[in-house]
Amino acid sequence: MGATAYCLLLSAFSPSQEAGQKIPMVFGAGAVYNTGIVEFPLGILNRDSFDLDKFWLEASPIMLPAKCRILCVDDHEDTSYMLTHLLEQSNYEVVTAGSIRDALRLIEEKEFDLYILDKRLPDGSGLDLCRRFTALTPHVPVIFYSGDAYELHRQEGLYAGAEAYVPKPEIDKLIEAVGQLLAEKDCAVAAA
Predict the structure, then answer these.
(1) Pairwise pLDDT comparison (57 vs 124), residue with the higher score
(2) What is the pLDDT of residues 140-191, one digit of tens each?
(3) What angle do the packed helices 126-136 and 151-159 form, to 10 degrees?
(4) Residue 46 and residue 33: Cα distance in Å, rounded?
(5) What is residue 53's predicted lDDT score, i.e. its pLDDT?
(6) Whether residue 102 sits in one domain with residue 185
């Protein structure tokens, strides 16, 4: 994490450059390349034409965040497809399960950063699954996304251990809740 990358003002980034390694690159925009020479009316311009030391800037390397991995448990295929599509557009990795049995198998195989659950599943209650998830992986937040939209249902979901309860079909609120719960999370798990 403490690695330092060097770059030259107005130069293009070289993908082969390693962090902490000074690779001379001169003023770009197509005029001069790393190993090339450009002829001008008054002489030849190459990378030795400049005192490059004064142009080096010390900067932290740009690190792209790892994708957060979300497990979506819903037996309705269209809902799973829609959620997968929308969440992947927001740069999340999505894995789906259509039953409690499949979901429990998946959390044994992979680590997740967030769970999205339907309350009604073919082999049991999403509330029971939420309790099992919070017991097995207490650090992973749970969101219910369910057609059961009454306040009593919301309270049941939160009491079972969910961080949020979003009634279907309020997809914008679901995406917002996902973003809020994962905003501070280091999703290095997803890169594994």
Answers:
(1) 124
(2) 999 999 988 888 999 999 999 999 999 988 999 999 999 999 987 766 443 3
(3) 30
(4) 8
(5) 52
(6) yes
Is the distance from CB of 68 to CB of 109 less than 8 angstroms?
A: no
Q: How many domains, the chain?
A: 2
**Section 19-31 average pLDDT:** 44
Residue tagged 């740009």 (tokens): 62
| Three-class DSSP category at 148 | coil
pTM, entire model = 0.63
99, part of any domain: yes
Instruction: Pull the structure tokens for residue 89.
Output: 């557009």
CA distance 161 to 131: 6
Q: In this structure, is residue 64 part of a structural domain?
A: no
- The verdict on residue 92 lying in a domain is yes
54-70: pLDDT as tens digits: 444 454 444 445 689 99
Give bridge partners of residue 73 from the DSSP assignment. Answer: 97, 117
Structure tokens at 107: 């959390």
Please name the residue ranges forming H helices in the chain. 77-89, 100-109, 126-136, 151-159, 171-182
* pLDDT exceeds cutoff 80 at 18: no
Domain of residue 84: give its range: 69-191
Classified as helix, coil or strand, 162 is coil
101 shares its domain with 186: yes
